[in-house]
Amino acid sequence: MKSIKYALLATTAAVALSGCQTLNPQNIHTTASKQTIQEAKQEIQNSKESNFDIAVYNNGVIYVKYKKPPGSVWLTPEANEVGYRTACKTLKPFVNKGMVVQVNFQGGQTQNYNQQRCDSQTTTNYYSYWNK
C-alpha cells in the first residue's frame, strides 16, 4: 500500500513540475525565424499600455500579461475572448510566421496560442452584448 502512495505522489509531483515548465514562456518551442522575432521586437517594443505588459522572447514567444484593477477578476469567458483577440487577431501576422502568443491574466489563467489553435478557434462574441 505504501508503494502505491509513493507512486501516486511521484506521479503527481512529475505532472505538477511539467505543468510549471509549460507555463514558462522561455520553455516553449516555436518555429519562428530570427528575422520574424526581430520584426516582432521592433514593432512591439513601443507598445506600452497601462492595462497590459508585453515582451518578445528570443525563442519566438510573445508574452502578454493583462492586468485588472485591485479587487477585479478575469471571468473565464472574458479571458477566452481577450486571449483569442490578442493572439489570433491583433498578433496574427506573427502567429502565422511561427510565433506563439502566451497570454496571462493577472490572477490566474494562462493561455498559449499558436497557428493551429488560432485556425481552429473562433471568437466567442463575449463583448457583443455590451455593444448593443
Could you please describe the fold and organization of this structure?
This protein has helices at residues 2-23, 34-44, 76-90, 92-95, 115-120, and strands spanning 52-56, 61-66, 100-105, 110-113. With 132 residues, it is α+β, with helices and mostly antiparallel strands. A 4-stranded mixed β-sheet has the order 1-2-3-4. A hairpin with a 4-residue loop joins strand 3 and strand 4 (110-113). The protein is globular, with a radius of gyration of 17 Å. The N and C termini lie far apart (60 Å).
Brief account:
This protein is α+β, with helices and mostly antiparallel strands.
Number of helices: 5
Task: Order the strands across the largest sheet as they lie in space.
Answer: 1-2-3-4
Q: Report strand %.
A: 15-25%
Overall geometry: globular
N/C terminus separation: 60 Å
Q: Would you tell me the structural class of the helices and strands?
A: alpha+beta
> Average pLDDT across residues?
80
**Helicity range:** 40-55%
Q: How many beta strands in the DSSP annotation?
A: 4
Q: Which regions contain 5 or more consecutive residues with pLDDT less than 50?
A: 1-22
Report the biggest beta sheet as strand number plus sense, adding barrel if it closes. Answer: 4 strands, mixed
Rg over C-alpha atoms, rounded to the nearest angstrom: 17 Å
Order of helices and strands: HHEEHHEEH
